[in-house]
Each structure stands twice: as C-alpha cells, then as structure tokens.
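Example record

The entry below shows one chain as it appears in the dataset: sequence first, then structure tokens.
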Amino acid sequence: MTRVGKWVSEHLIMFVGLLVLLYMLTPVFVVVLMSFNQPASRNSYTFNTFTLDNWLHPCAPNGMCESVALSIQIGLLATVGATILGTLMAFALVRHRFRGRAPANVFTFLPMASPEIVLGSSLLALFVSAGLAGQLGFGTILIAHILFCLSFVVVTVKARLAGLDPRLEQAAMDLYANEWQTFWRVTFPLVFPGILAAALLAFSLSFDDFIITNLNAGQEVTFPMFVWGAAQRGIPPQINVIGSIMFFTALALVVLGDLNARRRSKR
C-alpha cells in the first residue's frame, strides 16, 4: 500500500463523517444565506441581492415577532413542566420497583411512536369533550406540548440514569452523607447533563411543533403556524433571520456546555 493510500484509509472515517455533517448542515447554511437576501418578489426563493435590512428589521412582517414571542413563552413553560415531570418519572422507573412498572415503560413510548396527527386530534377530542371547545388557546397548547415532550424527557434522563455508577452514591453514604446530601452533591450533578439535554430537546420540539399546535391553538398563532400561513403568500426573508438566530443560540449553548465540561474535567 502506498503512503497516500495508507493516509486515506486512516482518515476515511473522518472524511465520511465530515461529508455527512456537511450534508446535514446544508439546509442551515441555506437559511443563513437567505437571511441576507433581498428577493426579487415575494414568490422568489433564489438569492437576488445582499442586504442587511432583514437583520436590522426582523419584525417587519406584521405579527411575526408576536408569534415568535408566543412560541418562546410556550416552549419555556412546556420545557419546565415536561423536564420536572419527566425527570421524576425517570427516577421512579429506574430506581424503584413497583407493580405496573413494565407497562409504564411501554406506555412512555406511545406518544413518541404515535403520529402527530393522531395525537393532536385525540387531544382536540379530549378538550372538546371536557367542554373546552370555546377556550382553545394558550392553555391547551401548553398542555399538549408538555404531554408530547414528556416522553422524550423520560427516555433521555433514563438513559443517563442507566449509565450512572451506583458505587459513587454508595461511597458517599459510606462517608456519612445522608440520602438528601448524596442526591444533591453526587447524583444530581452526574444526572444534570442528561436533564439539560432533555430540556433542550423539549424546547426545540415545542418551538418547532406545528401539527398538534394547529389542532389545539384556537385563535393563537405560534411561529410555525405563522410560517405556514406566510408560505401561501410568499415567505418573508425575515423568517430566515429568526431561524438563524435560533440556530446560533443553540450552537452557543452547546459550545458553552462543552467548554464548561472540559474546564471541570481539567479541575
């Protein structure tokens, strides 16, 4: 084997990984590029002229920033609710033995496996049968988002708990720490990365959801619903600005988390 062939064989996996990553991020690059575009018309989706007006006036389309604020508000509340409930469920399913534990594990996956149209229509039927047909709005959206985010939180935190070495907690108790001190000083810091990952996943799912939200929103308009409505008349380029901001915000959070983890490992 020649030197070039050996070098290629040693770095082949890295090249394939980079190509797959580039393929996955291509739509993101297009969104960022189109955020600087001044289209020739509302129905044009090709790059026409470079401009900064979209970033200087992101709220130019009427109602867009209101829909973004609503999606962020619902996403944060749904994330808090789903993360708290999902973390408690994960601890119960992993750390405790009780009757019905196996069926509970199976039922946890049902919202993840069910098509969104089925889950959304079922929730709508539930709200209507409960007499909330005329009160669809912020509250029903929040309940629906907590419900379908809950399964993702449970699965993510369970995976973190399953990989936790129980000897660390036993060592803390051998050093005269009670259960409360062991949880907050040993268990929780070790599980926290999984909880944080579950929270970020829940927020992205909530912010991005359209089908379930559309069925249970009433007169409220979230950002995905605004994009869907705007697409029928021509998508404004400011939508790409919001998408770019969300991407760079998520990227910054991941980078900061990685830097913090490396700093801790060095300590």
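Notes for this example: Residues 90 and 96 are 10 Å apart (CA to CA). Residues 62-235 form a domain with the MetI-like fold fold (CATH 1.10.3720.10).
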